[in-house]
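Hi there,

I know you've been waiting on this one. I reran it after we fixed the sequence typo, so this is the corrected version. Both the input and the resulting structure follow.
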Amino acid sequence: QVQLVESGGGLVQPGGSLRLSCTASGIIFGIYVMGWYRQAPGKQRELVATIESGGSTNYADSVKGRFTISRDNAKNTVYLQMNSLKPEDTAVYYCNGKFRSREYWGQGTQVTVSS
C-alpha cells in the first residue's frame, strides 16, 4: 500500500518560514520524481516545485527564490522549505510522486499566511 504523508503545515505571519515534509512508503522512493502542489480556495491545483531522482529541481515562478525543495532518499522524504511567505501562499499543499504511469498523492497539509 502506497502512502505519502505530509506534515509541517500551520499558521504563519507574512515574512515567516515553514518547512513541509512528506514521507513515502510502499514505493521505491529513489526513482520517483517528487513534487509539491498547492490548491487555494476557488482555484485549481498548481505546481509549486519538483525534484527528480538525480536532484534536478523545477519551481513555479511565483516561488522562485523563496522556496527550496529537497529530498533525502535514505529517509524516503521530500521537503519544501518556504521562506518569505506571503498571504497568497495560503493553500492546501499536496505531496506528489510520479514514476512513468504511476502517480500518487498525499492527503494535503494546510498552510495559512496571515497576520
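Quick highlight: The CA atoms of residues 39 and 45 lie 4 Å apart.

Best,
R. S.
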